[in-house]
Amino acid sequence: xxxKRLVLSLGHKDLxxxxxxxxxxxxxxxxxxxxxIQEGWQVALTHSNAPQVGMIHGGMSEFALSHPDEYTSVxxxxxxxxxxxxxxxxxQNGLRSELLSRGIYKTVSTIITQVTVNPYDxxxxxxxxxxxxxxxxxxxxxxxxxxxxxxxVPGKGYQRIVPAPNPVAIVEIDAIKALLDAxxxxxxxxxxxxxxxxQGTALRGASAVIEKDLxxxxxxxxxxADVLMIVTAVDNVTLNFGTPAEEPISEMSIEAAKQYMAAGxxxxxxMLPKIRAAVDFVESGRNRTAIITSLAKxxxxxxxxxxxxxx
Length: 311
What we know:
The protein is of the alpha/beta class. The chain has helices spanning 19-38, 50-66, 76-101, 137-145, 173-181, 212-222, 254-262, 271-283, 298-302; strands spanning 4-10, 41-47, 108-110, 114-116, 129-135, 149-153, 157-162, 169-170, 185-187, 194-199, 202-205, 227-232, 237-239, 247-249, 251-252, 289-294, 308-310.
């Protein structure tokens, strides 16, 4: 009998913001994923890269500034690819070790994943996603002179902002499918994938980022997953979040989710992309379920005892 497939999307809080935090976080994450595998699930793992890609981009930019005659700044798409390798390396080894400690001999593979975007996506005309470290006004002026865009962050300085276009297609999807069919644990689509644009036979990196949950939803549809689980900082989706009238939701229909989105219940940069990804996935086929919950509740949520289920 074919195993059930799960796409598990890890949030940045479950990976930390630096190397020691990341290693410690993976030590807590790996046993949960190993439990899923031990229970018979086939897992494709995606993850955030927001702190890591910002650290890489900032570090590479600082290095280029201090060695202007030898080095140039590194494109954002390259930084995104570097972050996939950096995070994937730790996840891959942490998961391999946890599985072997249980007597489970399963190959864990990381795929540097590119995702095509539409060059005419409206997001390119309205960049909103902040990346990198906070800068002074003078540093922001230098970025603006380069053609990059910055925004003031109250009390912190300035940050670069980039577009967040919708994912169109996962370039390495056939490789991902082949590894899953071989019953491997696959880490892919890190940070939403490296955004690329098609130019003839070539792929050109875009100076943008993709919402990783939207790419996770696309991946779940492409591999015909049974469940899309989006792990975030809260146990449940809530209405009226952060107010005295806050109301956690345990189950949500597609129709209700669309109504809540239209009514503006979900924050644009955090929960809204998760709900969008869940709705698109569940609508794309029969017997598909999306779950939004915290890592601490992930095991119970998969059994229907916690989290928010959208079906």
